[in-house]
Amino acid sequence: MKAHKSLQAYKYYESGFVMAAGTIVINDFYVVVGKVKHSFRGNLKPLHVWCLIAKDGSVSTAHCTCMAGNSEVCSHIGAVLFAAEKANGKKEDQQEGASCTDVLAEWPRPNLSTPVPIVPIHDMNWGTSSVKQKNQNIPAVTDAELVNMLQDMSGFGYSSVLHRTVEPFATKIRKEAQEIIPSILDLFSEQNTNKTYLEL
């Protein structure tokens, strides 16, 4: 399989989902067992995987305790097989006397043994504890401070949405707008109450 690195099973192995793996010989078969983390539910107990492999390397049967394990073709089984193949390769290198500099560099895989709690988004802390503590110490803006800030902005010729909602700026802006664009109430006249639609 030249494209085996694109398989989901290989990605599970590379990401450290395989927690343990072992092999025992029974008659003419190798029994490979292992524990694999769940694909999406990391807080649950690990899955149990076993494979029955003939001496020629062919897989006779396999099983996993996940939902797709009954079909004997889930990716967790493949991840355990990749782990067993890697362990066998390391054993052969040690027997041949290969040193750590004779093989390609292997970076440490991330540790997934620590469970990550699943909480709602509004309960997540999106900053460090120091930043969160700093934000809690910021006092709220008073009404007088808000009016003074808007007054300074008006002095520089700036207008914001707050000017249209905070008094006395809101009333001033509304009057200026009425002088430019008359409202429907300003168009009302008692003389037009008896006219028809066509006359209007």
UniProtKB/TrEMBL annotation:
GO terms for molecular function: zinc ion binding. InterPro entries: Znf_SWIM. Keywords: Membrane, Metal-binding, Transmembrane, Transmembrane helix, Zinc, Zinc-finger. It comes from the Eukaryota. Residues 49-85 form the SWIM-type domain. The chain crosses the membrane at residues 12-33. This is SWIM-type domain-containing protein. It comes from Callosobruchus maculatus.
